[in-house]
Specification:
Blueprint lengths: L4 H12 L11 H17 L11 E6 L6 E5 L1 E11 L2 E4 L1 E2 L2 H6 L7 E2 L3 E7 L2 E7 L1 E2 L4 E8 L16 H18 L6 H17 L20 H7 L5
Parallel strand pairs: 5-7, 6-9
Antiparallel strand pairs: 1-10, 2-8, 3-4, 3-10, 7-8
Helix pairs in contact: 1-2, 1-4, 2-4, 4-5
Length: 233
């Protein structure tokens, strides 16, 4: 069954107590205000991506010699790989200071082996080094910001019912703030529980790969990238 944004807004008004269920109907202005608040909530999730429970992937094609790529609505990235034929190769994430402020040879076209992500308006800029020497297929995994909705948008095609329920409580809280009405303790507590649960659904993978100073092996570097042309045991 469809669950439209208008239905969510209506239920949020009822939950807030601003509109009495069974006794009052939402006005056109209240529908419009509720929609604006709902879209604001969805947009704010890009700032606190812990409350976005979904990871998804984006396929990109490398442009030979190009370092920077804009990824629309990407708010957090966790994994980035490229492909040579049917073989997948992982790239190493590099922090901002190391990527932009350490010595390196520029304008080298080879197999990319490191990447960095910077948030920008509407998404993120992805930087890769070395500059790709060919049009390698690439895939990035992460969390993407939500799109705006209209009153007739069927939310159930994008969100699970538990997330729609969370949005209802979150919207009800915002409605109370807009109307200077106290959000009742019981739904306020329920909203906190939802937020705690959401941060545990798809947490960031903080698995660490340690490289010992005493190992006989070597880390992946540009010499290997050039000489091995991607083949790495």
């Amino acid at each position: 069954m469809a669950y439209t944004a208008q239905k969510l807004i209506q239920n949020a008004y009822y939950l807030s107590g601003v509109v009495s269920k069974g006794l009052q109907y939402l006005t056109t202005a209240q529908d419009a205000d509720g929609l604006d608040l709902l879209n604001s909530i969805l947009d704010i999730k890009g700032a606190d991506y812990r409350l976005i429970p979904y990871f998804s992937s984006k396929d990109i094609t490398a442009v030979p010699g190009q370092e920077k790529y804009f990824i629309e609505k990407l708010v957090e990235a966790e994994n980035f790989v490229f492909y040579i034929n049917s073989v997948r190769y992982a790239m190493k994430y590099t922090p901002r200071n190391q990527y932009f402020a350490t010595p390196r040879a520029e304008n080298i076209k080879s197999l990319p082996y490191s990447w960095h992500l910077e948030r920008t308006k509407g998404g993120s800029n992805l930087y890769i080094y070395f500059l790709p020497s060919s049009d390698y297929p690439m895939t990035i995994w992460g969390k993407f910001g939500f799109s705006e909705v209209a009153l007739t948008t069927d939310l159930s095609t994008t969100y699970d019912l538990f997330y729609i329920e969370y949005l209802k409580y979150s919207l009800a809280s915002c409605i109370c703030s807009e109307y200077s009405v106290e959000f009742q303790p019981q739904p306020a507590q329920r909203l906190k529980v939802f937020e705690q649960q959401l941060t545990d659904i798809s947490p960031t993978d903080f698995t660490m790969n340690k490289i010992s100073s005493f190992t006989k092996g070597v880390d992946f570097n540009y010499g290997i990238a050039n000489l091995g042309t991607g083949w790495w045991p």
